[in-house]
Amino acid sequence: MDQKILWAVNHMPKTDDKNLPIMGLEEIAKARTFHESFPQYTKTPLTKLDHMAAYLGVKEIYLKDESYRFGLNAFKVLGGSFSMARYIAKETGRDVSELPYSVLTSDQLREEFGQATFFTATDGNHGRGVAWAANRLGQKAVVHMPKGSTQTRLENIAKEGAQVDIQEMNYDDCVRLAAKEADETPRGVMVQDTAWDGYEEIPSWIMQGYGTMAMEAGEQLKEYGCERPTHIFVQAGVGSLAGAVVGYFSNLYADNPPAFVVVEAEAAACLYKGAAAGDGQIRIVDGDMETIMAGLACGEPNTISWDILKNHVKVFIAAPDWAAANGMRMLGAPIKGDAPVTSGESGAAPFGALAAIMSMDEYADLRKDIGLDENSRVLLFSTEGDTDPDRYKNIVWKGLDK
Ligand SMILES: Cc1ncc(COP(=O)(O)O)c(C=O)c1O
């Protein structure tokens, strides 16, 4: 625990918030209806951890468990599938609401649209989602993975019929490679879970797809009798997920938004660095970005999300690996009476950060900056299960660091 949790309170200049409507409630309702049309669809559980909340000194803790998403062990497929549907809708002159799963997979639509090749780069979860969706929709997928990606993750993508490889380069360079290949391939389409200047439409659809998870969570909170959480913690790699969650809940609770906290892996904390610099400009992290949080090992922020985050996030946190590892162990073996949650490295990072902040004296100031106390009702997202099963066992069962 030599490495400390770092944080930056958001004092960045506000903008005109032009990207917030991407996560408008009506748009997200469409994504939700689309996902509901899949035969594999069920709402993922929102687990309430009462004993853990009492132990950590907050009122309520709610954890959305995405290990149950479509049998894929992570939330990511929500974005890939919805963006591909919106792309096909646009190409065939329809609204996405006219393309539920049954129509998208029909012979008639396949004949009309034909076959495209969807290119992407991934640490694992996004690529698996794209490969899965392409497989179901009768489309082709090409997936590049960065140096250090595990064989298990590659095999899970290959199983869906995609062409997949591990490159000798980091995630952000894999993105550039996939973009180049998509450009050079007839009917090649880049379906990347991040945006940059000039590449914004598909990533905004991906963020809307993630909105299904946020919308479900909002409804499930109500079922528990919680009209509104006081705090929402969300993890970030490039920040598409965080932009989606922060954007959706800023729209849902427009009159009284919760305090949003973004949690990154310290080795790849580009958003935190931007917030710490304070001028509103993007900061980039380069190099290998070694962390157990594979899904968060991205050093170049999504440009459209960044705008949403700048306007709405209260605190940006850079979490060391030990925080994520502790979070995995605590969720896997919680206090008696609470349900265990299988949460992977990137999934458990926000909970691990919350647990450290609430239980370690050295983070008393951070507790204050976020405004966490015995009245706090906290919503978090466990965005993946044991997507790397060997590493999961090493950390949770054997007590290793990675
Ligand atoms: C499990 C998991 N959680 C969180 C994230 C972060 O999402 P984003 O890159 O949109 O910030 C990822 C990204 O791959 C992921 O795989």
From TrEMBL:
<keyword id="KW-0663">Pyridoxal phosphate</keyword>
<dbReference type="GO" id="GO:0030170">
    <property type="term" value="F:pyridoxal phosphate binding"/>
</dbReference>
<feature type="domain" description="Tryptophan synthase beta chain-like PALP">
    <location>
        <begin position="40"/>
        <end position="354"/>
    </location>
</feature>
<dbReference type="InterPro" id="IPR010081">
    <property type="entry name" value="DiNH2opropionate_NH3_lyase"/>
</dbReference>
<dbReference type="GO" id="GO:1901605">
    <property type="term" value="P:alpha-amino acid metabolic process"/>
</dbReference>
<dbReference type="InterPro" id="IPR001926">
    <property type="entry name" value="TrpB-like_PALP"/>
</dbReference>
<keyword id="KW-0456">Lyase</keyword>
<dbReference type="GO" id="GO:0008838">
    <property type="term" value="F:diaminopropionate ammonia-lyase activity"/>
</dbReference>
<dbReference type="InterPro" id="IPR019871">
    <property type="entry name" value="DiNH2propionate_NH3-lyase_sub"/>
</dbReference>
<dbReference type="Pfam" id="PF00291">
    <property type="entry name" value="PALP"/>
</dbReference>
<protein>
    <submittedName>
        <fullName>Diaminopropionate ammonia-lyase</fullName>
        <ecNumber>4.3.1.15</ecNumber>
    </submittedName>
</protein>
<dbReference type="InterPro" id="IPR036052">
    <property type="entry name" value="TrpB-like_PALP_sf"/>
</dbReference>
